[in-house]
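Researcher: Batch entry, complex prediction.
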Amino acid sequence: MSTKRYIIASGLILGLFAVIGTALVGITHDTTAEKIAQNERQALLRKLQQILPADQHDNNLLQSTVEIPADDRLGHQQPSRVYIATQQDEISAMIFPVIAPRGYSGEIHMLVGIDINGRIIGVRVVKHRETPGLGDAIEAERNDWILGFTGKSLDNPAPSKWKVKRDGGSFDQFTGATITPRAVVQAVQLTLVYFERHRDELIAAYRKQQHEAAEAEQESTDKEHEHSEHE
Amino acid sequence: MSDRNYNEISKNGLWNNNVALVQLLGLCPLLAVTGTVINGLGLGLATMLTLVASNGVVSLIRHWVRPEVRVPVFVLIIASVVTAIELAMNAWLYELYIVLGIFIPLIVTNCGILARAEAYASKNSLLPSMLDGFMMGLGFMLVLVTLGAMREALGYGTLLSNAHLMFGELARDWTLHLVNDYSGFLLAILPPGAFIGMGLIIALKNLIDRRAKKAQASPLADSDAVAATS
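Model: Structure tokens for the complex:
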């Protein structure tokens, strides 16, 4: 009998601490959740603004996005969102989250900004696991290399030159690291191809979305008017 | 509790029984994040905080918890504390959290923390337990920072780079460039550099201990005996 009670008491104590521990984590989560979401938005926005400074668009990038289906050229297995930049309601540029699948140690996550005429306005690496000291020169904080894409387009350099120099192209590689820049160059080129093929589609999708949003807003203000009239 | 006892706890945590150098615990995060001083300091502070909190709680509940279930209870406490710290860092030290990434949740698996709960906090009252956690954590952090400094100085030729991740924008200028146009020494930054650096630090500690023992051998031999019996 006493053994039984012993087991029950031990189980209860364990259960009690499970409840207390979960409560602690739950409370902390509740108090920090909003701040964490805000941090993530801020960090993303900072990255986006490195590519497209605030004075080159006048909309909220985080709120004007178009969802696109998974596409191999962009390296996505899941649908992703393209950020649409507008200046006085004219679409000026698009920023694509892109994954270069063949880095030296796995995926390289990047943002590729392309202006409406198909010229690159900037590329930034968001997340990678490349070798420190060698492959991590793709970070803008460590090396100017990634800035070299700015102004390039599908035919500048010519399609056959969209490679690192070792492969006969026109982009530098790093001493001791060829695989990393090769992956990045290829991913940027594929993004340009994707943009060329889907440009009009994306613009149409964005316009339609804007239109629907405007209509929805109109409707809700109409309803409000009705409501106030009834009162 | 006498002052002597507190001294003993401090000495144990910082030197004689250092978590990293003597107990050789928690080496995975230790070797992985010590690429720079700031990374080491960040993980060291998080570990120290965890140790103080977990030791404190374990000490408070030590009379309630039956021996059969004490280990799962300790693990539960440590895991909850670490998760809370992880969320707090994500909220208030976001940039550093991104850098340290996976190694914050991995503090749970740092056996050094469970070892202190089991070996010390479950047998002692609140204040000494928290002090033990603090000193053990501090000792661990000092090793992280030293190793980080060695690897950063050799590998990048800088010290305190990225200090703004922890101390805000003002600290951006704290970076010390030891050598201008340093081309970098890759081995120091890569994992082998961590192992070699760690080995050197342990060797240095042993060397100092041996020197001290020799110097002490004749006149002060009885001080150790007193400490052991107190």
